[in-house]
Design brief:
Two copies of one chain form a homodimer. Chain A has 138 residues and is α+β, with helices and mostly antiparallel strands. Chain A folds into two domains: 76 residues, Winged helix-like DNA-binding domain superfamily/Winged helix DNA-binding domain (Arc Repressor Mutant, subunit A); 49 residues, Ferric-uptake regulator, C-terminal dimerisarion domain (Dna Ligase, domain 1, 2-Layer Sandwich), CATH 3.30.1490.190. Chain A is 36% helix and 20% strand. The first copy, chain A, is built from four helices and seven strands; from the N terminus they run H-E-H-H-E-E-E-E-H-E-E. Chain A has a three-stranded antiparallel beta sheet with strand order 1-3-2. The first copy, chain A, has a three-stranded mixed beta sheet with strand order 5-4-7, with no helix packed on it. The longest helix of chain A is centred in the middle third of the chain and has 14 residues. Chain A is globular and about 45 Å long. The relative contact order of chain A is 0.13. At the A-B interface, helix 4, strand 6 and strand 7 of A face helix 4, strand 6 and strand 7 of B. Chain A binds a DNA duplex (25 and 25 nucleotides) through helix 1 and helix 3.
DNA sequence: CTAAGTGCAAAATGTTTGCATACTT
DNA sequence: AAGTATGCAAACATTTTGCACTTAG
């Protein structure tokens, strides 16, 4: 088994995510660290994120092609998951226990253990499905 | 509103998906058409897929970064959605009406209209969560 | 000392775009 | 004719990789 060394760079990436508490793209993290004067190379940010995801401290969320993955520190945020609107592209984070029912169903009927953090629910958000006021097509 | 012309290329792409009935990456479609002797350029395949998705004949499914989007003809396959294993990477298509409950919940509690075709449930599949025989972690 | 991690720049991947040409209607 | 679509190659954006060097244990 491979042991992981503690490095300044990885600590910096993790503490950024911990302090923020929100979802961030790799690019955002890179820029933020740069502005803070922290020197962490782009490649290292990606590699650190990969390790942090493997270790379970951080979750990745792949929204859709052409957009970046979103990373987020998960210290107990077990009910958190994402609703992504296919019309406006916005992603809403929902903290809601319905995911428990989902987990139960998929485990019992499909032998499948749902990941609360990485699951993406696609659909149309309330803003975009507002009746009448919609723009006349695209 | 913009009218769409019927073209040989788009018909070819659509009929490939109809005949297959399965999910395919753009790359697969391009290769398959090439082998069939159909001449459709890569760019046109992408553009056709985009139009077909817009028209509702085809669904896209973005699995995760570094992998291609999956396209699929949806002629009434309304109960179809994807379970993706984060360990082995396999994607299982599930046809199951539980999605009705999901739809109800997200609509009632979040004003969000779930897309049956594009939603991705991430988790660990039964093969990968088989007890006892698992590798000793990482 | 050795395994693991870093930084850089270059590569890779999957998809999109500009533009001149060719279809559809 | 006017509006779309095509094909090609070049551009893109995000992420990954090779390699020589540094650091943690």
């Amino acid at each position: 088994m491979q042991t992981t060394y503690r490095t300044r760079q990885r600590a910096v990436v993790l503490s950024f995510l911990i302090n923020s508490g929100n979802c961030h793209t790799a690019e955002e993290i890179i820029k933020a660290l740069e502005e803070k004067g922290e020197t962490v190379s782009k490649a290292t940010v990606y590699r650190s994120l990969e390790l942090l995801v493997k270790s379970g401290d951080v979750s990745v969320f792949y929204s859709s092609r052409g957009e970046s993955a979103l990373y987020r520190y998960i210290g107990g945020h077990s009910d958190h998951f994402h609703l992504k609107c296919t019309q406006c592209g916005k992603t809403v984070c929902a903290d809601c226990s319905f995911i428990n029912s989902m987990q139960k169903h998929f485990y019992e009927h499909h032998g499948f253990n749902v990941s609360r953090q990485r699951t993406v629910i696609y659909g149309v958000c309330s803003d975009c499905s507002a009746p009448a006021i919609q723009p006349l097509s695209h």
